[in-house]
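Query structure, 282 tokens:
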């Protein structure tokens, strides 16, 4: 496994694979890797000849009061984990490599699917995501790029971007990896106190309860109210509890597949999760 820190170095490392028309898979991450990330890499290894994993804490997708400065940076530990799952190349550029001074003047704005959920709660977040994903896809030029369904809206935004800009690759969405108690793995789980960690799985448990209620015929609005109430009662400060179609279209009734979305804070730590609920026609 090689580690490249420059765009030029990565291009040189990828040259033999490109010349031999090998399938290049790409997994973008911000590091502090856990099993969720590693499962993306395993998927990439299954489908591709060469796998590149980027580790880059992207400043443009963090808001002014978010955790950019404190975001855990654990490159050495991440390198060991990636070597174990067969990653071929780590791309770990500096901020200056990707955002050279004096400034990047190009914006990549995806409209519509960024209006709601995290797009609404974290203004500018998806502009930063769209810019860095565009830059990384242009640098790596993979055949496939792998993203986690834990960040469901991010997958929709990236797929839209790739489609609209005619980028020659396929986006693969990988199911969420969870702890045994259901909590979606996240680098931010490390911020939780022991007590908060006990409460955190309530998000997924209440999403599963909501799924059962929907299948039992309880109205979507009532199910969302119960979900909010359960989370508030458990000690969460709710950012949003919402439902959309898998394409992030508005919906008011459970008359087609629905995705339930939660973003909620435990203390200072913001957690997100989602669950797709299948509509079963009777
Ligand atoms: P991050 O490092 O948080 O930017 O995440 C990098 C990639 O890993 C994104 O595509 C995430 O959606 C994905 N990811 C993060 N956590 C999980 C998880 N628990 N299960 C599956 N994918 C995940």
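Result returned for the query:
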């Amino acid at each position: 496994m090689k580690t490249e820190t420059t765009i030029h170095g990565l291009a040189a490392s990828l040259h033999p694979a490109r010349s031999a028309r090998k399938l290049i898979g790409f997994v973008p991450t911000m590091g502090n890797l856990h099993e969720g990330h590693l499962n993306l890499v395993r998927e990439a290894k299954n489908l591709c000849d060469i796998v590149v994993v980027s580790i880059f804490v992207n400043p443009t997708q963090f808001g002014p009061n978010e955790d950019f400065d404190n975001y855990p940076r654990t490159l050495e530990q991440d390198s060991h984990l990636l070597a174990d799952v067969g990653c071929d190349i780590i791309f770990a550029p500096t901020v200056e490599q990707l955002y050279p001074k004096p400034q990047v003047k190009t914006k990549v704005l995806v409209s519509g699917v960024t209006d709601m959920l995290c797009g609404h709660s974290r203004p500018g977040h998806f502009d930063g995501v769209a810019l860095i994903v565009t830059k990384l896809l242009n640098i790596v030029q993979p055949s496939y790029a792998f993203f986690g369904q834990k960040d469901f809206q991010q997958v929709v935004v990236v797929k839209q971007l790739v489609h609209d800009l005619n980028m020659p690759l396929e986006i693969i969405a990988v199911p969420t990896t969870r702890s045994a108690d259901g909590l979606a793995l996240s680098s931010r789980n490390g911020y939780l106190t022991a007590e908060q960690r006990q409460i955190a799985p309530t998000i997924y448990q209440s999403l599963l309860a909501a799924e059962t209620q929907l299948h039992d015929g309880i109205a979507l609005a009532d199910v969302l109210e119960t979900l909010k109430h359960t989370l508030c009662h458990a000690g969460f400060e709710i950012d949003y509890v919402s439902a959309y179609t898998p394409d992030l279209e508005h919906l008011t009734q459970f008359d087609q597949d629905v995705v339930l979305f939660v973003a909620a804070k435990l203390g200072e730590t913001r957690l997100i999760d989602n669950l797709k609920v299948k509509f079963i026609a009777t």
